[in-house]
Description:
By secondary structure, the chain is mainly α. It has two domains: 3-102; 106-172, Orthogonal Bundle (Arc Repressor Mutant, subunit A). The protein is 79% helix and 0% strand. The chain has eight helices and no strands.
Amino acid sequence: MNSIALTINDLFLNHRQSLIHTIFGIVGCPQTAEDLAHEAYLKMLHAAETQEISYPRPFLYQIARNLALDHLRKEQVRQRGGYPSKDHEELETLIERLPANTPTPEQQADDRQQVDHMLEALNGLSERRRQILVLHKFHHWSYERIAGHFGISRSAVEKNIHVALGHLLAARDGSPF
């Protein structure tokens, strides 16, 4: 099993009950909710083979939501003998008003642009200052550990982190670095 499938397996197992609960809230049947959750997992595995999934958890929930809504539509058509009705239109309106769990394409583009802007700002830092910031903020190293690693004082670490964060905040606010 490849690493993407393992990641998706972990995601599904960690969110399985919540996913089933979410689907149950739409379809009202525990067995159907369980079946649709499993189908969402399989669809996500298949999708991951052909595309990069930037937001895996919301993507899984969106697949599940879509499957649940499709199930409701099919059930309504079965119950009405295949003819649309006023109830069908009300159901469609209700379905359209359900909030999506994934960012819109515009939000994704804006997020990507912000990440690119921050990466550009990070690249504007000196190599050592960038390393100090990354070790502290992303690897959770203490000031003392960083100081020992670079052979500098604790106050020099504090100053580097302060200057680096100021640089990133200025970049975020649109100020020249």
